[in-house]
């Protein structure tokens, strides 16, 4: 009987979690897989997009996609909430940067080039730049990381706090 009560209590807590997280996220931010994200459909360079996130009150930064499951949840969220920005040519800056085989998230943590969040064959051994989130296939709607050169732009960016 005690096990049933514990399961019921856990179910109640789980049902309240989305509302608690949404309240914590604040205006213009949405809860996605335990973090708060803001999708901004504005064409900028990576550096300008990062500066815009950091200028928020409270300060934010470009999205760090960890754990990797966040990418699936984020893809579903964008497909549902921003259907007009889901085309295969639409890309979003997120918080990865690097050169050759040394890629990092904006907080300094390691971004593995062998991770399955990268589009196959991205980045190459000699590429330097920043991470864009792109849709690889409209069939399944999942997005992947690709590299973008320093002065390139993306059609949007994603802040996190």
Structural class: alpha+beta
Query: So how many helices?
Result: 3
Name the CATH homologous superfamily. Answer: Mannose-Binding Protein A, subunit A
Kindly report the average pLDDT value: 85
Q: Report the strand count.
A: 10
What is the CATH level 1 assignment?
Answer: Alpha Beta
Order of helix and strand elements from N to C terminus? HEEEHEHEEEEEE
Instruction: Provide the low-confidence segments as ranges.
Output: none
Helicity range:
25-40%
Shape: globular
CA distance, first residue to last residue: 40 Å
Give the total of domains.
1
CATH-scheme architecture = Roll
The quaternary structure here is single chain
How much of the sequence lies in strands comes to 25-35%
CATH fold field value: Mannose-Binding Protein A, Chain A
Q: Main β-sheet: number of strands, strand sense, barrel status?
A: 8 strands, mixed
Gyration radius, rounded: 17 Å
Quick take:
This protein is of the alpha+beta class.
Write the layout of secondary structure elements.
Elements: H1 2-25, E1 30-32, E2 35-40, E3 44-45, H2 46-54, E4 61-62, H3 69-81, E5 91-99, E6 102-105, E7 128-135, E8 143-148, E9 153-154, E10 156-160
């Amino acid at each position: 009987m005690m096990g049933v009560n514990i399961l019921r209590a856990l179910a109640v807590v789980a049902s309240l979690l989305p509302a608690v997280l949404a309240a914590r996220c604040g205006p213009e931010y949405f809860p996605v897989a335990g973090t708060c994200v803001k999708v901004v459909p504005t064409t900028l360079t990576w550096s300008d997009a990062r500066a815009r996130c950091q200028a928020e009150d409270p300060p934010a930064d470009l999205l760090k996609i960890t754990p990797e499951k966040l990418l699936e949840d984020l893809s579903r969220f964008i497909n549902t909430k921003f259907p007009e920005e889901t085309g295969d040519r639409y890309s979003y800056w997120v918080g990865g940067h690097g050169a050759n085989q040394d890629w990092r998230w904006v907080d300094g943590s390691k971004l593995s080039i062998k991770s399955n969040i990268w589009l196959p064959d991205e980045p190459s051994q000699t590429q330097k730049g920043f991470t864009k989130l792109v849709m690889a296939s409209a069939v399944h709607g999942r997005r992947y990381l690709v590299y973008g050169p320093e002065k390139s732009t993306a059609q949007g960016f994603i802040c996190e706090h």
